[in-house]
Every structure is written in structure tokens, then in C-alpha cells.
Amino acid sequence: MASLKEELSTNTYPGRGIVIGRSEDGKYAVTAYFIMGRSSNSRNRVFVTEGEGIRTQAFDPSKLEDPSLIIYAPVRVLGNDTIVTNGDQTDTIYDGLQKGLTFEQSLRSREFEPDGPNYTPRISGLMHVENGTYDYALSILKSNHGDPSSCQRFTYTYENPKAGEGHFIHTYQHDGNPLPSYEGEPTPVAIGNDIDAFTQLVWTNLNAENKVSLFVRFIEIATGKYETRVVNLNQ
């Protein structure tokens, strides 16, 4: 497994990222979602609680420029399912699950973001905790190496995940112009037991100039009860 600390601290701009896994003691389904920004519009955001999930919100509404790709609900909960994404495809998945579609089927109607030349990938995760069992899935929808005429779709599913192991996927390989899309399978990373230690590990190792907000949730697999941490650079 890779070190999540190393993965974050050695990359100045992974963009937006999702980690999903299982705590070392096996008791918790764990997720983290972070956003970063290079532009003033992207950096002018905070996470706020909405229902059992969160929504992005302009920190200073007077400075909000184009809200289309930066204001959305990254986390929503539907019954035993927790949806985590980097865009408004959270709603697409939520609506699809309500209609009886699978995670993958729900995302068939979506593709990468229309923000050429970057064509930012849409990354999504789904956690299912029910009756003491836990499984999760991750997805990435991305352009064919910057060619917007071709959308590449990858879904990774993890049944009965191992204690202490998670997977990390993010939008960009590294900083650049244009920004290069993430490559390869989600990276296996180690997950601990303590929500505050895990939150601190992620937040402190994100690039100080570019990090914006972080969401972390530990869900008790036996009961479905959860704890949440939200960290915003803008206070």
C-alpha cells in the first residue's frame, strides 16, 4: 500500500480527491473528500452541512464568478448508501439509485466536465453499509488523453474490503497546463482508526497554497451511525 501522506505531500495539485476504505480495526467505513483550487473562484468556497451530506458554498458571495462547476453537493445519503463525488453527478447517482439503477448505470448519462482544455474527470464513490456488511465502489469518467470526442469510463468495486486498507483517486496526476487527468487504478492506501488523526493527516499534507476544504466521515459498520469532520481554509 502507498502512504497517503506521501501521495498528498509530494503532489502540489491532485485537484479534487476521494479516499474510501475500512479502518484498521475493521469497525468503520471511512471516506474523505477534499477540494483544491488554483483560481480565485475555486478557492472562494467552503463546505457546509446539508441534511446528512454537505454542499459547497461561496465563502464570499460577492466574489462568486461561474458557479456551474464549483457549487454542488459532494456528499448525499440515500438509506444505506453514501455517495461522494466531485460534482453534480452526486444528484445523478442519487436519482439513479432511487429508480433502481446501479452506480455504474447511473453514471452512463454523464461524462467528464466541459472545462476544456482540462476536461476534468468526474470521480465518484459509493459506500454501502447494511446489516454489518460493507462494500464500496469508485468511478472515473475522463477524456481520452484530452480528446473530448471520446469518454473513457472506469468503475472499480471492492467487496468485503480489508481492514486498514482504502483506495485513493483524484482528478489530476499533478499540476500542469493543461492539467493531466488521473491515470491507472485507484491507489491502495493505509487507513487508521482515529477520525481526528486521519483528518489531520489529510489536511496537513495537502498543498498549503491550493487546499480549500476537506470532509471526513467514519461510519460504524455494525450500526450505521457516523461521525463527521469538516475543515475549511476560509473561516
Descriptive overview:
Strand 12 and strand 13 form a beta hairpin. The termini are far apart. The protein has 235 residues and is mainly β. It has 5 helices and 13 strands. The protein has a single domain, classed as 4-Layer Sandwich (Glutamine Phosphoribosylpyrophosphate, subunit 1, domain 1), CATH 3.60.20. Strands 11-10-1-2-12-13 form a 6-stranded antiparallel beta sheet, covered by helices on one side.
Strand percent estimate: 35-45%
Listing every helix as H and every strand as E from the N terminus to the C terminus, the arrangement reads HEEHEEEEHHEEEEEHEE
Determine the CATH topology. Answer: Glutamine Phosphoribosylpyrophosphate, subunit 1, domain 1
Provide the structure class: mainly beta
Q: Could you give the distance between the termini?
A: 34 Å
Helix fraction by DSSP (H/I, runs of at least 4): 10-25%
Count, helices: 5
Number of strands: 13
The largest sheet, given as strand count, sense and whether it forms a barrel, is: 6 strands, antiparallel
Number of domains: 1
- Provide the CATH top-level class: Alpha Beta
Using only C-alpha atoms, the radius of gyration works out to: 16 Å
Average pLDDT: 97
Oligomeric state of the chains present here: single chain
CATH superfamily: Inosine monophosphate cyclohydrolase-like
Based on the model shown, name its key terms.
235 residues; mainly beta; Glutamine Phosphoribosylpyrophosphate, subunit 1, domain 1; 6-stranded antiparallel β-sheet; 5 helices; 41% strand
